[in-house]
Design brief:
The chain has 948 residues and is α/β, with parallel strands linked by helices. 30% of the residues lie in helices and 16% in strands. The chain is built from 30 helices and 34 strands. The strands form 9 sheets. A 7-stranded mixed sheet has the order 13-12-25-24-23-14-15, with helices on one face. It has a 6-stranded mixed barrel with strand order 29-33-30-32-31-34. The chain binds iron/sulfur cluster (2 copies) and FE2/S2 (inorganic) cluster.
Length: 948
């Protein structure tokens, strides 16, 4: 069902924008691109022709016969949804005859439709059409054969399917095929017996359905309907905002009834998602009102004390006094702050400003440290800008997609749907480099040309081998490289990469990939037309993460696949605002806009506006903060929206460091793993309560709008401001728009950005300034940001984390569709029906050797620690490699991961941990301790003394 505020133009715009065609509709002149349907042309002229099976999200189908029109010179009554416009066409949409035909059609539909369905006021298209056609009663009666007794499918937690209301218009089936690309629905049976069925007549929950909701959105009758809509009734108002989950950054209309959220409807105007979404963004919002949410500030002296609820004033004064006490006792550098990619740009900017100007040091870091910091470093070194090069729509012009270390169908589902469309239509070929057989390797509708199933930790070897093939076979873009890249550096790199030690044959032992496949993939990438690279944390979270990112930039420059649509180097960012949190200067060495703190001119510009002297030396990164804490030098931490206790590697090391601090201030929604070690808890707000901006993986800055008032009483930026004022560094913002104005004033790539400008354009891809007032969809056009592109020597250095007799398997980690990162949000929604525990995936061969069967409890030990999970035996894994997700704290996935990290950025090597796996019968010692500690902390929360 469509949103309350949306207009539906009936059919999509033509794919290719052809020359304009002029026609008249009911005497109104209209000019539209060639290939437009008559139905859409009429809608663009302001004339809505009745319709049921057509929608502008799907190709025309022509089954319902409601949209019939008369066209001068044409016989009969053609369907306007399937008839393209022609020059000089004269269309009539209203006549007595047309009205009779349409009413007849509608009456037929209604004779097989529950009578009350039209009067329940959900605003379905069926209701609206019946009203528009003046059909109030059914001439044929309701006594004949009908489907009114069909069983309702309530299995999906978020929507229900009532076949009695289905008119078999196929919109849901087409939405699942065309928009989502899952092909979970069919029309089974024939004639009167035909009906919508999910995967061979299974309940939705047990079918292949991934619960994206595209079919629900497409259904014109309410047969498929959100349970929340059934519960609350139709919304009364809505606000457009941005999803707070992954880096796709889908735009939604949050539909409200009073203060209640009725449903989230993906916004067709959304530039990142074009009206589509995944199960998380559309449905998993229940955490916002979950009873676990903490809404009152709390303090305690020791982590073994019960919490005490206090007023905001007391909590802020206490936190500030503690930080000041610690600085007086241990020195200026003994405290710091951590921001989060879940927070808005404005919130993140304020945290780093508080640390640099209020704390007087540069000890600020962000959770992007543990995911995409190598992206920032590697792309800056080679191309000159720490960001992806394209917009998502660019994939529509890709001829070859090189997907490495990313699993978009789980982690970036809406981009995956767009990618699948391109692959399914046969327009693009696909290379997948991944230790796992991810979904895109082979589905009934998509098949990769190459699956390079490399060993974890060997990305650089693979990418060097591909570059070696391209150089040694003379497949590189000589003119492009000569014109656009630094020549001495390229010459050195060319000699380096041409060395036979980099050949696929020489690297075969390391990679475990047949050399012919590496050669074939390299040739396809270099010669297959527009080639786009898409990558994820499977590239960055390695000891050579930054090197691998440089290798990807090399491949793009080497083959001239950069600087236009359909090509480029595209990091798929994990969290909603990874790009933004990095842009906002939350790394210890950089001011907003990626400018080093040692740059005097830049520092002075901040000093002038902020009115304080700033430090020129980089501060501590998160792992350095932990080290310093264990050394007794780092004692106070302000953590906004990040759960380092669960998300950072080597949990036991992290918790030891947290235990060594004297004042940890956590600002979050729930008492998370970090908050269990905190002394001050400041309740944060959800994205529904925020006002600000997020920046997605395309550098697209989108508005986050307040849908409901902050339930905790203060917006997150206000809390940081209160803390700053209490620390003695005054901040006086009245609205987040003023924070963005300051960001724009101080950051050249954001100079043209303001809330007003974003509202005007819908969203903006930075750089946005005088040179690019509309933003920049494609980077490095004509020239690289750094001038000439730079090649660097990328020697492959095998990770020190090696399998051996004691730890013979390699563990790698990743995400699943229904859950999100540490699970704080999604675990508190009905999404747990799809994934209620983390499991260990193990190849049948490795399982058999160890006597492990599906569902057995298995102990996983590494050099860092032990944990226990249940096993899933699957051939998705290569032998020798095991895999788990990390969405549940008790799983202890990060108890096993080590402290190895990227040489340039300290991004942890999450993707490679040598482990042993064996059947066990009880939880690990860590799990027992963790469970007891969590119970104790819950008790202390439970007994929190209320504010006086
Ligand atoms: S919810 Fe999505 S995946 Fe499931 S049937 Fe509908 S369109 Fe297909
Ligand atoms: S989680 Fe990602 S893909 Fe899903 S709706 Fe949100 S932004 Fe879109
Ligand atoms: S809307 Fe054109 S035939 Fe259904």
């Amino acid at each position: 069902m469509h949103s309350i505020d949306e207009r539906d133009l009936g059919t999509p715009a033509p794919l290719q924008i052809g020359r304009p065609v002029s026609l008249t509709v009911d005497g109104v002149a209209v000019s539209v691109p060639q290939g437009t349907s008559v139905l859409r042309a009429a809608a663009l002229a302001g004339i809505d022709i009745p319709k049921l099976c057509a929608t502008d999200m799907l190709d025309a189908f022509g089954s319902c016969r409601l949209c019939l029109v008369q066209i001068e010179g044409m016989k009969g009554y053609p369907a306007s949804c399937t008839t393209p416009v022609a020059a000089g066409m004269q269309v009539t949409t209203q006549s007595r005859k047309l009205a009779d035909i349409r009413r007849g059609v509608m009456e037929l539909y209604l004779s097989d439709h529950p009578v009350d369905a039209l009067s329940r006021g959900f605003g379905t298209e069926m209701e609206k059409m019946a009203a528009a056609l003046g059909v109030r009663e059914v001439r044929y009666g309701l006594a004949g054969a009908n489907h009114l007794q069909a069983c309702v499918d309530e299995s999906n937690p978020y929507f229900r399917f009532d076949p009695a209301q289905c008119i078999v218009c196929s919109r849901c089936v087409r939405a699942c095929d065309e928009v989502q690309g899952t092909f979970a629905l069919t029309i089974s049976g024939r004639g009167f017996a035909s009906k919508v069925a999910a995967s061979a007549d299974q309940p939705f929950l047990e079918s292949e359905c991934v619960s994206c909701g595209a079919c629900v959105q497409a259904c014109p009758t309410g047969a498929l309907m959100e349970k929340s809509l059934l519960g609350h009734g139709q919304a009364t108002h809505s606000a457009v905002t941005t999803c707070a989950y992954c880096g796709v950054g889908c735009s939604f209309r949050a539909e409200m009834r009073g203060e209640e959220l009725v449903r989230m409807v993906p916004d067709k105007e959304g530039h990142a998602n074009h009206g589509h979404s995944c199960v998380k963004g559309r449905f998993a919002v229940g955490y916002a009102t979950h009873p676990d949410r903490i809404l009152k500030p709390m303090i305690r002296a020791k982590i073994s004390d019960p919490w005490r609820e206090v007023s905001w004033a007391e909590a802020i004064a206490h936190a500030a006094a503690e930080f000041k006490r610690i600085q007086a006792k241990y020195g200026r550098d003994s405290i710091g702050g951590i921001t989060s990619s879940r927070c808005t740009n404005e919130e993140t900017y304020l945290v780093q400003k508080l640390v640099r100007a209020g704390f007087g040091n540069n000890n600020v870091d962000t959770c992007a440290r543990v995911c995409h910091s190598p992206t920032g470093y590697g792309l800056k070194q080679t191309l000159g800008e720490s960001a992806g090069t394209q917009r998502f729509d660019s994939v529509r012009q890709c001829d070859v997609v090189f997907l490495i270390g990313a699993n978009p169908t789980d982690a970036h589902p809406v981009f995956a749907s767009q990618l699948k469309q391109r692959l399914r239509d046969g327009h693009a070929r696909l290379i997948v480099a991944d230790p796992r057989r991810i979904d895109l390797v082979r589905t009934p509708h998509v098949r990769a040309d190459y699956h390079l199933q490399l060993r974890p930790g060997t990305n650089v070897a693979l990418l060097n081998a591909m570059a070696h093939v391209i150089v040694s076979e003379g497949l590189y873009a000589k003119d492009f490289v000569a014109a656009r890249c630094e020549q001495p550096a390229f010459g050195k790199w060319k000699a380096f990469i041409a060395d036979p030690r980099h050949s696929p044959e020489a690297m075969a032992g390391e990679l475990g990939v047949p050399p012919a496949d590496v050669r074939g993939a390299a040739r396809l990438y270099a010669t297959g037309g527009n080639a786009g690279i898409y990558y994820g944390l499977g590239v960055s979270e390695h000891a050579q993460g930054s090197t691998a990112v440089m290798c990807l930039a090399h491949l793009a420059m080497l083959t001239g696949n950069i600087g236009r649509e359909g090509v480029g180097v595209n990091p798929l960012r994990g969290q909603n605002n990874v790009q933004g949190s990095c842009d906002m200067g939350s790394f210890p060495h950089e001011f907003p806009g990626y400018r080093h703190v040692s740059d005097e001119a830049v520092r002075m510009s901040f000093e002038q506006v902020w009115g304080v002297k700033l430090q020129s030396e980089p501060g501590l990164r998160i792992p350095n903060m932990f080290e310093a804490a264990l050394d007794g030098e780092f004692k106070g931490l302000y953590v906004q929206g990040e759960d380092i206790g669960q998300s950072d590697p080597n949990t036991q090391h992290v918790t030891a460091a947290l235990s060594a601090m004297e004042c940890i201030v956590v600002q979050d929604l729930f008492l998370n793993e970090t908050a269990n070690f905190a002394h001050v808890f400041l309740p944060g707000s959800t994205f529904l309560e925020k006002d600000g901006t997020f920046t997605n993986a395309e550098r697209r800055i989108s508005r986050v709008r307040t849908v409901m008032k902050p339930r905790n009483g203060h917006a997150d930026w206000e809390i940081t401001q209160l803390l700053s004022n209490a620390m003695g560094y005054p901040m006086h913002y009245a609205h987040p728009a003023q924070i963005m104005d300051e960001i724009a004033r101080l950051t050249p790539t954001f100079a043209g950005v303001s809330f007003a400008r974003i509202d005007e354009l819908g969203s903006i891809q930075w750089p946005c300034n005088a040179e690019h007032p509309q933003g920049t969809p494609t980077m490095h056009v004509g020239e690289f940001v750094r001038g000439k592109g730079r090649f660097l020597l990328t020697e492959y250095v095998p990770t020190s984390e090696k399998a051996n007799a004691r730890y013979p398997l390699i563990l790698t980690t990743g995400r699943i569709l229904s859950q999100y990162n540490v699970g704080a949000q999604t675990r508190r929604t009905a999404n747990v029906v799809w994934h209620d525990e983390d499991r260990l995936d193990i190849h049948p061969h490795d399982a058999e050797q160890r006597g492990i069967r599906e569902g057995d409890w298995v102990g996983i030990s590494s050099r860092a620690g032990d944990t226990v999970l249940r096993a899933r035996v699957t051939a998705r894994m290569a032998p020798g490699v095991v895999y788990t997700t990390f969405h549940f704290p008790g799983s202890g996935a990060n108890v096993i991961t080590t402290e190895n990290s990227d040489w340039a950025t300290n991004c942890p090597e999450y993707k490679v941990t040598a482990v042993q796996v064996a059947r066990v019968s009880q939880p690990s010692e860590w799990q027992k301790r963790h469970a007891a500690f969590t119970r104790q902390q819950q008790e202390l929360l439970h007994h929190a003394a209320p504010a006086k």
